[in-house]
Amino acid sequence: MATQMPTGAKAMAAITFAVAGWMTANAYVPNMPEAQSVALFREIVAVLGGVVGWRVMGNSVGKGYVAAAGSGWKTMIVLVFFALLLFSTYEMLQESVRMRYEGAGEAIIDVFQQMWKRSEGLLSTTVIAVMAIGGAIAGILTENANRRWR
Fold first, then answer.
1. In the 8-state DSSP scheme, what is residue 68?
2. Could you tell me the residue ranges of all domains in the chain?
3. Do 144 and 13 contact (CB within 8 A), yes or no?
4. What is the C-alpha to C-alpha distance for residues 130 and 134, in angstroms, rounded to an integer?
5. Contact, 72 vs 137, CB < 8 A?
6. 104 near 41, Cβ under 8 Å?
7. Cα–Cα distances in Å, from 11 out to 52, 77, 123?
8. What angle separates helix 41-55 from helix 8-28, to the nearest 10 degrees?
9. Average pLDDT over residues 102-124
10. Is 0.85 topped by the overall pTM?
11. Which residues, other chains included, contact 108 with Cβ-Cβ below 8 Å and sequence gap of 6+?
12. 10: which of 1, 58, 70, 109 fits an S-S bond (Cβ 3.0–4.6 Å)?
């Protein structure tokens, strides 16, 4: 089991993936559904990126720079999944307050439908490039921090 103690690599992962999450959210904003408010979207994704970076990438260091780039991509995919889940669940809760659903099952199914609908905006070249480059750079910086700060 990986250690849960704070390390320099985990701190670097949290910082770099918060930045990568913010940049990915910024690239995604033009592709958001029309009725969706941007508000604190970037900031929430950045905080989520910090948490995911700490938990996922922070435990995947020590295997070399190439493996770190791959772990960075994996961490970005996990970040995008949880961001989609978070915002889709929030939208479902807003709709459930308006009594749109017949039951809990319909509400849960709608979360995954919203995730699918929102994921279409991720298919733009800009978003994919930011995710790929940002994830690789964040992973490599985390690996470098692991080698320097033991």
1. H
2. 8-30+38-148
3. no
4. 5
5. yes
6. no
7. 11, 19, 30
8. 150
9. 91
10. yes
11. 92
12. 58
